[in-house]
Batch of 2 targets.
Target 1
Amino acid sequence: MAIVAIGARPKSNGAPLQAMIYSRPIIGCDEPVSANRNLILKPIEQKGPNMSSISRRHILKSSGALLGLAALHPEFGHVAEVVGAPNNMPLRPLVAEVGKPDLVATDVYFHETNLATNGSNNGWVIFDDYVLVIDASYPAGAQDILGKIRAITDKPVRFAFDTHHHGDHAYGNQVLVEGGATAVGHTGVIEEMKRYETGYYGGQPGRWEQTANSRKDVKASRLKPPSVLFPQELIFDDGKHRVELHHFGIAHTHGDAFAWLPNERILFTGDACVAGPYNFVGDGNVEQWITTLEAARKLGARVVCPGHGPRGDGDVLKNQQDFFKQLRDKVGAMVNAKKSPQQIHDSVEAIGAELSSSSGVARYVSKGSLPGQVEKVLVEMTGQKFPEQQKASGSARLWHAHHHGLDHPG
Ligand SMILES: [Zn+2]
């Protein structure tokens, strides 16, 4: 059953008191709570939508009580400002503001990052005893969010979750690890790092060294791969907050994992889902990505915090999935019509125009990234690439743009 406590605390920034709901997790918490209950390494059973709706019903009852309390006690603030509210309760409005910590729910922050300077978006969750960070960004980004976290809480940043291995998400690990954190990731993150970060593992210079050539913050730092790994799920749960890290399959890379907050129904996706023309497909698999997004959609998120771009609701997952479905449909139709790689290459602009006419999908289309995306789908379907001269210009530029923070929208 749901145990709900309502409290209020002064905000360090002088903001008015806000009502807070603490919901004890109902799903998957039948493990005995040990003395060290902060980190449960035991895998959980897969949940279906039915289990989620049970929790929703229970929590709904409790939210009614809070509505009443807020009305009776104005110091709890207007009810529209209530945060930490599961399910039918209002969350903070979906207002994008790059570089400003975005309090999505009680103790849960989303940070839309300036991609050009600092890399990926971030999230952080303030547990009773520590802070869990979702994606460290580049070292400059890690320094930036560390300062912002410090302005909110003095609890230690103890865990840094890498949603995947890419530098704009994980190269900042070292900054957080030096401050006492442990980097955490799906086992696929390490496998990918061994594949691409060849310099770190004793081989020829790899991606880190390539990035260090153009980014001073990376050059002044070092790669710090995650050292706590999970094959499917890892759960953080202190009775007030629960964050489940889930690997649902191949998507943007072979090691993507999502951070799911079942109490608040908030999903942090890393680059398995983005909100804008940021889809780099070179390290993943578009066909399997669609399936992975389907699994993520089944969670029933109310808020989706993407790896790049502003946060949104559950439709962001669907929009990104539709983009890939339509992309595959269009390339597949040309493959079935026996079009050559050159002909498909020459049709990229027309494909882009068609995709741009589809609402919800248009924001994923950009001239810079579409050639690489079309080629990737062609490779997945036929094993054939674009003719050499086109391929080289397209994918090299894409790679450079994505991993050097240069891929602006539009
Ligand atoms: Zn990425």
Target 2
Amino acid sequence: MTKEQAIKCDKILKQQSEIHKQNPKIVRVTCECGKRPDIRYAFRCYYCGVYFCKVCAGKHFGDSQEKQEMRSIFNPANMADGIKR
Ligand SMILES: [Zn+2]
Ligand SMILES: [Zn+2]
């Protein structure tokens, strides 16, 4: 595991424990920028497993082609898969 991957895993673990501590009806997740979007409106990277707010998701995926990919991956049905209730 590279250092970068280890940092990603740490983020995922933090977000996961954050999610599980909350009332399942109102779940907020902390983005790397410090914003806490409602998880229903957060974007989860399919590859990293990390949740982002809309702005950071855009940055994370970059422009044009990758954004198109983001739209197809991040529909609400797919996002719900990451949450065990
Ligand atoms: Zn953000
Ligand atoms: Zn990613």
